[in-house]
Amino acid sequence: MGLFSALRLQSVLEPMRGTDVTAAVSNTIEPYVNNLGWTGYNSVTRADAMTVPAVARARNIIAGTIATLPLSTYQETTEAELPNRPFIKQPDPALPRSNTLAWILDDLLFYGVAYLQVLSTTQEDGRVSNARRIDPIRVSMRTDPNTQVIESWTVDSKLVPFNGVGSLIVFWGPDEGILARGARTIKTAIELEAAALRMAQEPVPQMVIRNEGMNLPEDQKESLLNAFKQARRTRSTAYVEGPINLDVVGFDSAALQLVEARAYTASEIARVVGIPAWYINAESASSTYSNVSAERRSLLDFSLRIYMDVVESRLSQDDITPRGQYVEFELDDFLRGNPTERVDVLVKLIDSGIISIDEARAMEDLSPRGSTLNE
């Protein structure tokens, strides 16, 4: 979505009537190439990727953690905290803020881009007041073949405007998304999960009973096979009379090294996603950090920060937030240490005169009791 235009204020679009949000401004056009349209043997869908436990775990850590962090608005010149605009509090009128943010982060992780479609704008300044998440596979764009400048956007092959109601708020991710750059690794993990399922359904290799004596009648063959099958279910060993040998065809799970292969692939997925491997239990070694706050700091620095910056920067742009203000995630609670560490920090801040007792109590979600130790 481009910068808002004060000369083109839009009225509120009714999102709950079941009509196409772009109906008033769209035309069906062809051809449009979806900007996510990768193909080939190594292509993989989001639904396929989420069947891999390591991918699902990494997604839920990144999207779930960031989506639950509070958002605050600040004045650039004074750093004073300002009231959040309604859009920052709840972008989609039909969903809680955390749900909308979680899916934005999900799209950034998997596709490298996320979209919100504007449902309404404010009458006073034309800025966005409500928007709804659009699945990236529904969105296409047309670019100039020479300059690569985006000329137009479509949703479900219908043209949408560059600003105002029906336009798109685009969150550009740090890369092309894990479905593109990590397709081979995810595909390998999917195949290993399928192999593990087959091994679970057939826990032992195929066995062939070979009779080296006289040929048996069909009824005796059937009886022999049934007896052996029943013995395998109820005993660890079986006994058969006569010159009969047992041949094993295929490999067991140990020979296939399924456990080792799946653990290695989980580590590779951790690298693809950009998350410390121990967060998805891909490494047996314990963390080198001594407390939770240090581990969370590691997760923030190496995994979450880039996605948080994408969201913060886009929400701080002029079509959403007034110029001179910016939006930022609050990390105080997320990085909060254990009670002993927090008390030590607060005491030092009080002793140095940086904060009062009331401010210290507020930081611990306690009611005020006075600003001096004697009160």
Mind explaining what this structure looks like?
- The chain has 375 residues and is α+β, with helices and mostly antiparallel strands.
- It folds into three domains: 1-202 and 251-337, no CATH class; 206-249; 339-375, no CATH class.
- It is 38% helix and 16% strand.
- The strands form four sheets. The protein has a three-stranded antiparallel beta sheet with strand order 2-1-11.
- The protein is elongated, with a radius of gyration of 30 Å.
- It starts with 45 loop residues before the first helix and ends in a 12-residue tail after the last helix.
Précis, in short:
The protein has 375 residues and is an alpha+beta fold. It has three domains: 1-202 and 251-337, no CATH class; 206-249; 339-375, no CATH class.
Mean pLDDT, to the nearest integer, reads 78
| Structural class determined from secondary elements | alpha+beta
Low-confidence stretches: 1-33, 371-375
Order of secondary-structure elements = HHEEHHEEEEEEHHEHEHHHEHH
